[in-house]
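User: Before I run my own analysis I want an independent prediction to cross-check against. Here's the chain; please return only the structure tokens and, at the end, one sentence I can use as a sanity check.
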Amino acid sequence: MTLLKFFDNIVMMDKIRVGCATLVERDGKLLLGSRGKDPDYGMLVIPGGGVDFFESFYDTARREIREETGVEIKNIRQFRTFEIINPVNKQHRVIVYMNAEYESGELNPSDDLLDANFYSMSEIAELERDGKISPHNVVVLKAAGWIRETV
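Assistant: Structure tokens:
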């Protein structure tokens, strides 16, 4: 860890981080990426990232999906907001989730993601059963109807 990164982590310990992640649908499949950094390294996540100062959630959704996956999106709508409070890791995050549709581009994951792909609902259910989706993202995918509760 560099000295600058160390100080960034100290500064962030007492700040609420605001993020935006987007559920991107294409032909009945959902875009998920394999996270390339901690927390949840290697787990499948909904792509997204931090909201820049004076940036709308809609602009953040467009920018983050473009930067992390290489694709363009359209018909962006706000879906739901979730809060993550983890005193053990000294994290407090508010994440605004958006829904959008794929518009164009080829998948080209950034350094933040090891891989990215579109998954069907049945594939997502299998990935969840196998424990390959980040636990927080499982909650979001259930709320969005991509993972159905089984009885």
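Sanity check: The helical segments are 3-12, 57-69, 121-129, 135-143.
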